[in-house]
Fold this sequence. Notes:
Keywords: Membrane, Transmembrane, Transmembrane helix
Pfam families: DUF2628 (PF10947)
Radius of gyration: 18 Å
Low-confidence stretches: 121-125
Shape: elongated
Protein name: DUF2628 domain-containing protein
Strand content: 5-15%
Largest sheet: 3 strands, antiparallel
Strand order of the largest sheet: 2-1-3
Transmembrane segments: 38-59, 65-85
Number of helices: 4
Distance between the termini: 27 Å
Number of domains: 1
Organism: Marinobacter halophilus
Mean pLDDT: 91
Number of strands: 3
Amino acid sequence: xKQYKIFTHPxxxxxxxxxxxxxxxxxxxxxxxxxxxxxxxxxLILIGGFSIGFVMALVMPVDAANLIxxxxxxxxxxxxxxxxxxxxxxxxxxxxxxxxxxLVEAKNPDGAVALFLGNETSIAA
Length: 125
């Protein structure tokens, strides 16, 4: 089971954010950021990635440029994997979401939201 922090928007919409490493962020980088509505991060990752590759190709031999570009890309992917979920939490706060900070254990985000809503209604009743 994974641990999720539940965020609630004033409109009543809930989002679950897994705690710890972000595999989708690591594997899909800028596209993951786009899906999660982190526009600035997505632009930075996508434009930055292409720019680094382009600059390296201009200033180095092809083999060296490919090696350096791949090492930089791996470093960026690891950084996103480590920090991605925290960045997502910060983005949700900036969009008006709130959390009580409690963690819910579930197999997936939808299950975490369902458990949260079940607990919330049982507390309110």
